[in-house]
Amino acid sequence: MKVIGLNGSPRKQGNTGYLVRYALEQLENKGIETEYIDLIDYNLGQCTGCYKCVEAKKCVIQDDFLEIFDKMVEADGILLGSPSYHSSMTPMLKAVLDRAGFSGRWYVNDMKSKEDSYEWKGNAFSGKLVAPITVARRAGQNFTFAQILLWATANDCIVPGSTYWNIGVAGKGGAMDACDDAEGKSILNHLADNFEFLLKKINQ
Ligand SMILES: Cc1cc2nc3c(=O)[nH]c(=O)nc-3n(C[C@H](O)[C@H](O)[C@H](O)COP(=O)(O)O)c2cc1C
Protein backbone atom coordinates (compact mmCIF):
# COMPACT_ATOMS: atom_id res chain seq x y z
CA MET A 1 0.00 0.00 0.00
CA LYS A 2 1.48 3.30 -1.04
CA VAL A 3 0.26 6.88 -0.73
CA ILE A 4 1.96 9.74 -2.52
CA GLY A 5 1.58 13.43 -1.76
CA LEU A 6 1.92 16.12 -4.40
CA ASN A 7 2.78 19.63 -3.24
CA GLY A 8 1.41 22.14 -5.75
CA SER A 9 3.04 25.12 -4.03
CA PRO A 10 6.18 26.62 -5.57
CA ARG A 11 7.40 27.16 -1.98
CA LYS A 12 8.97 23.88 -0.96
CA GLN A 13 9.22 24.89 2.70
CA GLY A 14 5.77 26.51 2.72
CA ASN A 15 2.55 25.58 4.46
CA THR A 16 1.12 23.21 1.86
CA GLY A 17 4.30 21.18 1.72
CA TYR A 18 4.39 21.07 5.51
CA LEU A 19 0.81 19.76 5.77
CA VAL A 20 1.21 17.23 2.96
CA ARG A 21 4.39 15.92 4.64
CA TYR A 22 2.60 15.90 8.01
CA ALA A 23 -0.25 13.78 6.59
CA LEU A 24 2.23 11.40 4.95
CA GLU A 25 4.08 11.03 8.26
CA GLN A 26 0.85 9.91 9.95
CA LEU A 27 0.46 7.27 7.24
CA GLU A 28 4.09 6.16 7.61
CA ASN A 29 3.43 5.71 11.34
CA LYS A 30 0.69 3.24 10.36
CA GLY A 31 3.11 1.23 8.22
CA ILE A 32 1.93 2.64 4.90
CA GLU A 33 4.64 3.46 2.36
CA THR A 34 4.65 7.09 1.25
CA GLU A 35 6.39 9.41 -1.17
CA TYR A 36 6.41 13.21 -1.08
CA ILE A 37 6.77 15.14 -4.32
CA ASP A 38 7.39 18.86 -4.82
CA LEU A 39 5.97 19.57 -8.28
CA ILE A 40 8.24 22.61 -8.56
CA ASP A 41 11.18 20.22 -8.93
CA TYR A 42 9.77 19.02 -12.28
CA ASN A 43 9.44 20.59 -15.69
CA LEU A 44 5.65 20.54 -16.18
CA GLY A 45 3.83 22.33 -18.98
CA GLN A 46 0.10 22.69 -19.33
CA CYS A 47 -2.25 20.58 -21.46
CA THR A 48 -2.19 21.88 -25.03
CA GLY A 49 -5.46 20.20 -26.00
CA CYS A 50 -3.73 18.35 -28.84
CA TYR A 51 -5.85 15.21 -28.20
CA LYS A 52 -2.88 13.05 -29.22
CA CYS A 53 -3.30 11.08 -25.98
CA VAL A 54 -6.53 9.63 -27.42
CA GLU A 55 -4.46 7.54 -29.85
CA ALA A 56 -1.15 7.40 -27.99
CA LYS A 57 -2.86 6.46 -24.67
CA LYS A 58 -0.43 8.73 -22.88
CA CYS A 59 0.45 12.42 -22.87
CA VAL A 60 2.90 13.13 -25.69
CA ILE A 61 4.25 16.47 -24.44
CA GLN A 62 7.99 16.07 -23.90
CA ASP A 63 8.63 17.13 -20.31
CA ASP A 64 8.64 15.50 -16.86
CA PHE A 65 4.89 14.82 -16.67
CA LEU A 66 5.03 11.06 -17.32
CA GLU A 67 7.31 10.66 -14.33
CA ILE A 68 4.60 12.17 -12.10
CA PHE A 69 1.81 10.32 -13.93
CA ASP A 70 3.51 6.96 -13.42
CA LYS A 71 3.87 7.66 -9.69
CA MET A 72 0.18 8.56 -9.51
CA VAL A 73 -0.86 5.40 -11.37
CA GLU A 74 1.31 3.17 -9.17
CA ALA A 75 -0.04 4.66 -5.92
CA ASP A 76 -3.05 3.35 -4.00
CA GLY A 77 -3.72 6.80 -2.58
CA ILE A 78 -2.88 10.37 -3.59
CA LEU A 79 -2.87 13.54 -1.49
CA LEU A 80 -3.25 16.59 -3.69
CA GLY A 81 -1.93 19.71 -1.93
CA SER A 82 -2.34 23.26 -3.12
CA PRO A 83 -2.26 26.74 -1.66
CA SER A 84 -5.20 28.90 -2.55
CA TYR A 85 -4.12 31.36 -5.24
CA HIS A 86 -7.04 33.74 -5.74
CA SER A 87 -9.31 30.95 -4.52
CA SER A 88 -7.92 28.44 -7.02
CA MET A 89 -5.36 25.67 -7.11
CA THR A 90 -1.95 26.66 -8.45
CA PRO A 91 -1.41 26.49 -12.24
CA MET A 92 1.24 23.83 -11.65
CA LEU A 93 -1.16 21.41 -9.95
CA LYS A 94 -3.90 22.25 -12.45
CA ALA A 95 -1.55 21.42 -15.32
CA VAL A 96 -0.78 18.02 -13.79
CA LEU A 97 -4.44 17.22 -13.07
CA ASP A 98 -5.59 18.32 -16.54
CA ARG A 99 -3.02 16.15 -18.25
CA ALA A 100 -3.43 13.21 -15.85
CA GLY A 101 -7.23 13.25 -15.98
CA PHE A 102 -7.45 13.55 -19.76
CA SER A 103 -4.70 11.18 -20.82
CA GLY A 104 -5.66 8.81 -17.96
CA ARG A 105 -9.05 8.31 -19.61
CA TRP A 106 -7.52 6.98 -22.82
CA TYR A 107 -5.18 4.80 -20.83
CA VAL A 108 -8.03 2.25 -20.60
CA ASN A 109 -10.62 3.49 -23.12
CA ASP A 110 -10.89 3.84 -26.87
CA MET A 111 -12.52 6.61 -28.84
CA LYS A 112 -13.17 4.96 -32.17
CA SER A 113 -16.69 6.32 -32.50
CA LYS A 114 -18.68 9.04 -30.79
CA GLU A 115 -20.71 6.39 -28.94
CA ASP A 116 -17.55 5.13 -27.23
CA SER A 117 -17.74 8.10 -24.87
CA TYR A 118 -20.75 6.44 -23.18
CA GLU A 119 -18.92 3.17 -22.65
CA TRP A 120 -16.18 4.28 -20.26
CA LYS A 121 -14.30 1.43 -18.60
CA GLY A 122 -12.94 3.56 -15.77
CA ASN A 123 -9.60 5.29 -16.11
CA ALA A 124 -6.04 5.28 -14.78
CA PHE A 125 -7.21 6.45 -11.34
CA SER A 126 -10.21 4.18 -10.80
CA GLY A 127 -10.58 3.14 -7.17
CA LYS A 128 -7.67 5.17 -5.85
CA LEU A 129 -8.10 7.10 -2.62
CA VAL A 130 -7.68 10.81 -3.29
CA ALA A 131 -7.90 13.73 -0.86
CA PRO A 132 -7.22 17.44 -1.23
CA ILE A 133 -5.16 19.47 1.25
CA THR A 134 -5.51 23.20 0.71
CA VAL A 135 -4.09 26.25 2.48
CA ALA A 136 -4.92 29.94 2.49
CA ARG A 137 -4.15 32.95 4.63
CA ARG A 138 -7.75 34.14 4.89
CA ALA A 139 -10.22 32.66 2.39
CA GLY A 140 -10.43 30.40 -0.61
CA GLN A 141 -9.44 27.04 0.86
CA ASN A 142 -12.86 25.58 0.13
CA PHE A 143 -12.95 26.70 -3.50
CA THR A 144 -9.55 25.16 -4.05
CA PHE A 145 -10.66 22.08 -2.12
CA ALA A 146 -13.76 21.83 -4.32
CA GLN A 147 -11.72 22.08 -7.53
CA ILE A 148 -9.63 19.12 -6.46
CA LEU A 149 -12.73 17.19 -5.35
CA LEU A 150 -14.30 17.79 -8.77
CA TRP A 151 -11.21 16.33 -10.42
CA ALA A 152 -11.22 13.30 -8.11
CA THR A 153 -14.91 12.55 -8.49
CA ALA A 154 -14.78 12.83 -12.30
CA ASN A 155 -11.81 10.47 -12.36
CA ASP A 156 -13.39 7.48 -10.61
CA CYS A 157 -11.56 8.05 -7.31
CA ILE A 158 -12.74 7.35 -3.76
CA VAL A 159 -12.57 10.41 -1.51
CA PRO A 160 -12.17 9.77 2.24
CA GLY A 161 -13.41 12.54 4.53
CA SER A 162 -12.24 13.71 7.92
CA THR A 163 -13.64 15.58 10.91
CA TYR A 164 -13.59 18.78 8.84
CA TRP A 165 -12.31 19.78 5.41
CA ASN A 166 -8.58 19.12 5.01
CA ILE A 167 -7.63 22.77 5.00
CA GLY A 168 -4.85 24.76 6.64
CA VAL A 169 -4.73 28.35 7.79
CA ALA A 170 -1.60 30.40 7.16
CA GLY A 171 -0.46 33.64 8.77
CA LYS A 172 -0.03 37.07 7.18
CA GLY A 173 2.61 38.17 4.72
CA GLY A 174 3.45 34.73 3.42
CA ALA A 175 4.14 33.34 6.90
CA MET A 176 5.16 29.70 6.88
CA ASP A 177 3.47 28.74 10.12
CA ALA A 178 1.26 25.74 9.30
CA CYS A 179 3.13 23.90 12.07
CA ASP A 180 1.12 26.05 14.53
CA ASP A 181 -2.21 25.01 13.00
CA ALA A 182 -3.21 22.43 15.63
CA GLU A 183 -6.74 22.00 14.31
CA GLY A 184 -5.49 21.58 10.73
CA LYS A 185 -3.12 18.86 11.89
CA SER A 186 -5.83 17.08 13.91
CA ILE A 187 -8.00 16.98 10.77
CA LEU A 188 -5.10 15.35 8.92
CA ASN A 189 -4.62 12.84 11.74
CA HIS A 190 -8.16 11.61 11.22
CA LEU A 191 -7.81 11.73 7.44
CA ALA A 192 -4.85 9.37 7.83
CA ASP A 193 -7.02 7.08 10.02
CA ASN A 194 -9.63 6.96 7.26
CA PHE A 195 -6.99 6.29 4.59
CA GLU A 196 -5.65 3.40 6.66
CA PHE A 197 -9.17 2.00 7.23
CA LEU A 198 -10.11 2.14 3.56
CA LEU A 199 -6.77 0.93 2.21
CA LYS A 200 -7.00 -2.13 4.45
CA LYS A 201 -10.60 -2.83 3.38
CA ILE A 202 -9.77 -2.43 -0.30
CA ASN A 203 -6.67 -4.62 -0.11
CA GLN A 204 -8.01 -7.39 2.19
C1 LIG B 1 -0.48 34.51 -6.01
C2 LIG B 1 -1.04 34.32 -4.63
C3 LIG B 1 -2.42 34.31 -4.46
C4 LIG B 1 -2.96 34.12 -3.19
N1 LIG B 1 -4.32 34.10 -3.05
C5 LIG B 1 -4.86 33.90 -1.82
C6 LIG B 1 -6.28 33.83 -1.64
O1 LIG B 1 -7.07 33.86 -2.57
N2 LIG B 1 -6.75 33.71 -0.36
C7 LIG B 1 -5.91 33.64 0.73
O2 LIG B 1 -6.40 33.55 1.83
N3 LIG B 1 -4.58 33.65 0.57
C8 LIG B 1 -4.03 33.78 -0.66
N4 LIG B 1 -2.67 33.77 -0.82
C9 LIG B 1 -1.84 33.44 0.35
C10 LIG B 1 -1.43 31.95 0.32
O3 LIG B 1 -2.53 31.10 0.14
C11 LIG B 1 -0.75 31.58 1.62
O4 LIG B 1 0.40 32.40 1.79
C12 LIG B 1 -0.32 30.12 1.64
O5 LIG B 1 0.36 29.86 2.83
C13 LIG B 1 0.62 29.78 0.49
O6 LIG B 1 0.88 28.41 0.55
P1 LIG B 1 2.37 27.88 0.68
O7 LIG B 1 2.89 28.37 1.99
O8 LIG B 1 2.22 26.41 0.64
O9 LIG B 1 3.13 28.42 -0.48
C14 LIG B 1 -2.11 33.94 -2.08
C15 LIG B 1 -0.71 33.95 -2.26
C16 LIG B 1 -0.18 34.13 -3.52
C17 LIG B 1 1.33 34.10 -3.69
Write the layout of secondary structure elements.
Blueprint: E1 2-7, H1 15-29, E2 33-38, H2 52-56, H3 65-74, E3 77-83, H4 91-106, E4 129-136, H5 141-154, E5 167-169, H6 182-203
Parallel strand pairs: 1-2, 1-3, 3-4, 4-5
Helix pairs in contact: 1-6
Give a description of the structure.
The chain is an alpha/beta fold and about 200 residues long. The protein has one domain: Flavodoxin domain (Rossmann fold, 3-Layer(aba) Sandwich), CATH 3.40.50. The chain contains six helices and five strands; from the N terminus they run E-H-E-H-H-E-H-E-H-E-H. It has helices at about 15-30, 50-55, 65-75, 90-105, 140-155, 180-204; strands spanning about 1-5, 35-40, 75-85, 130-135, 165-170. It has a five-stranded parallel sheet with strand order 2-1-3-4-5, with helices on both faces. Helix 1 links the parallel strand 1 and strand 2. Helix 1 (about 15-30) crosses helix 6 (about 180-204). The longest helix is centred in the C-terminal third of the chain and has 22 residues, at about 180-204. The protein is globular and about 55 Å long. The model has no long low-confidence stretch (mean pLDDT about 95). Flavin mononucleotide binds near residues 11, 174 and 176.
Bound molecules: flavin mononucleotide
Number of helices: 6
Task: Estimate the strand proportion.
Answer: 5-15%
pLDDT averaged over residues: 96
Specify Rg, calculated over alpha carbons.
Answer: 17 Å
Counting copies of identical and different chains, the oligomeric state is single chain
Query: What portion of residues is helical?
Result: 40-55%
Distance between the termini: 11 Å
Q: Which geometry do the CA atoms define?
A: globular
CATH topology-level name: Rossmann fold
Question: Helix/strand/pairing class, anyone?
Answer: alpha/beta
- Which architecture does the CATH hierarchy give at level 2? 3-Layer(aba) Sandwich
What is the count of β-strands? 5
Helix and strand pattern: EHEHHEHEHEH
Any idea how many domains?
1
Uncertain parts: none
Instruction: Summarize the biggest pleated sheet.
Output: 5 strands, parallel
CATH homologous superfamily identity:
Flavodoxin domain
